[in-house]
Amino acid sequence: MAFFKKFLQKICDDDSSKGSKDGSANFGTVKADPNFNAQNDAEKLKKAIETKGVDEATIVEVIAKRSNAQRQQIKAAYQQSTGNPLADALKKALKSDFEEVVLALLMTPPEYDAFEMKRAMKGLGTKESVLSEILGTRSNKEITAMKNTFKEVYGKVLEEQIKGEVSGDLETTLLALCKATRSEDHKIDDGLAKSDAKALFEAGENQIGTVCSVIINVLTSRSEAQLCKIFQYYGKYSKEGLAKALESELHGNLEDCLMTLVKAAWNKPAFFAEKLHLAMKGLGTNTDTLTRIIVSRSEIDLLKIIQEYKRMYGKTLQEAIMKETNGEYEKILLALCGTQ
């Protein structure tokens, strides 16, 4: 919890990150190929798959250098010409982390989010951090599309699955986000920001038991722009009240979930840059996290994530990827990152 205190202190003192999250839809690294031809690409992939030893370089070139919408057209063209799903053919031909990235890129964004949510709740132990990351960083439209796809693909209601996997305040937070009713208004209500900041302060200072319900309500209902203003006003009430209360109240998965909402509101690309850094830090690399973030943000704000990574860690994301990964997996991640 010490980090929460440090983070809130940074918010009180530093306005430099404000605005870096705006307009992120224009900052993808993967763009549509202007000379796109679905039939040609489908034929290239067919040859690459059938080549002895598999022509992985061509698979990288085609899959990573096309937009998601174009990949859907390639899938349709491949199915039409061969009678078989492209994903099935690639699954047989590829393996390991490289296979994971390629199959992820073939899914639509709602399909991939639903797939990752399902995988996070599969088997023994739930990966709560994945649930928090996806629900805490997607728009209402993206969450609604994911929920619909989850029902179509897995025949289950996402909220019911979450209820069976988590409980308590974490369940309350995730289900609130699942409603996809969070404000997305860019206009800031100054009076509401002041009253919310005061409510958080009073809950933290005087009524520790109510901190969770107060902060959950604020963080899951206010827009990201509104939250940034609340964080700034909170600093005028206290430098440590909320953080101190949270230190005694929160831990583990709930803390991680609420911190996701705080960090994503303040600077979403920086949040993802930190997640990528942690995925490659220490012994072993968390390739699931690496793949999920790079694939899911490649047409949204990966360019900004790359910029934030350099600012925060003094080296490029591409340098970190080259150090921590190898083979075709490394090549396709670098292709998705583009040439900056």
UniProtKB/TrEMBL annotation:
SUPFAM superfamilies: Annexin. GO terms for molecular function: calcium ion binding; calcium-dependent phospholipid binding; phosphatidylserine binding. PROSITE patterns: ANNEXIN_1 (PS00223), ANNEXIN_2 (PS51897). It comes from the Eukaryota. One of its GO terms (cellular component) is plasma membrane. Gene3D superfamilies: Annexin. GO terms for biological process: cellular response to glucocorticoid stimulus; phagocytosis; signal transduction. Keywords: Annexin, Calcium, Calcium/phospholipid-binding, Repeat. A pair of annexin repeats may form one binding site for calcium and phospholipid. This is Annexin.
